[in-house]
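Project standup — Tuesday

K.O.: blocked on the structure for the chain from last sprint. Re-posting the sequence here as requested.
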Amino acid sequence: TKVMATTYLSSSQLFLINGIIEGFVGILAILDPKLIPNVKSLHKHGQIYAGFFGPMLFAMSFVSILMAKLEDSGNDGKHYFAFGWVLYHCGAAYNCFKQMLAGKKALIGGLIFHTFMLASFLMYLKSNNFQPQSLSPF
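H.V.: unblocked you, prediction finished:
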């Protein structure tokens, strides 16, 4: 007899956890952006970038928290938003991996988190029968 254990996040938990954690990162990027790459100082161009990135990430995270309470079935807006998180976590996981290869071993936590969230949002989209062709503007 084969017994399979399944652990998963509900849709509400996924959007809520993602919103809270990424919202915290957004606040860090706004208040003290050098904490994100864990450096003593940030180049002026990094400061400019963080000035755009922090508020955007915080805003997306706030919307993610609000979306946690919405229905999934037939909710194209929620599915598109989840697809946006897929792209974000894919890029973030890649960046963490690349930095780890360059010697920043402390980014293992970021790699694990972003890979987990990437897989979770992909599973969310799969379980809600997301159709990639729906992304076409035509």
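K.O.: great, moving the ticket to review. The first helix runs from residue 11 to 31. The radius of gyration is 17 Å.
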